[in-house]
């Protein structure tokens, strides 16, 4: 029987996926400036306001100026940095590097993992609180946005560690979590038979992200975005 409870800080981990190389955009999306701070710093501060057990930030571990700038950007914050030396392989690898850290920590199956990206410029603290409260143990809390006829169930997502342990190894390339559930609403773990239920929360504004220069240009006025203050070759 599933138990309904509000998530306590002691069993919420936030993972910020910030290892993308922004190749289609042309500059580091993590360092885009919004309201006098970078998108990366903004997401860390939002995560910290949830008062979670911990915040993990996955960064590209490369020997180049952008990577160094990202590590410098997170240095003042109380977060655990997860190195991703192969960021070009896509989001799945970042998720799996974060999972390795959680495995090393021997976190409990009941630990909830809230995954964020840096480029959903419209996400608010209220959104994250909505995704983090009144959760059943076996619910997969996902954001719903996109077309009403074919909604996207995607990130931010709040998943139990037991689900990630059972399914996270299946992630490949840049598809992220959506590949795990497609349009299923019930998923059964092959390891222990646990039945997981998808629980979408309607957050239509989260369909706005920044992958291309055209998207940046489209969003920059509404969200007061500026390109990184320093360009890297």
From TrEMBL:
Record carries keyword Magnesium: yes
Keywords from the named record: Magnesium
Keyword Magnesium: yes
Alphabetical list of Pfam families matching this protein: NTP_transf_3 (PF12804)
InterPro entries named in the record: MobA-like_NTP_Trfase, Nucleotide-diphossugar_trans
Membrane-traversing stretches: none
GO MF annotation terms: nucleotidyltransferase activity
Chain ranges of the MobA-like NTP transferase domain: 14-184
Highest taxon of source: Bacteria
Listed Gene3D superfamilies: Spore Coat Polysaccharide Biosynthesis Protein SpsA, Chain A
Name this polypeptide is given: MobA-like NTP transferase domain-containing protein
Organism: Faucicola osloensis (Moraxella osloensis)
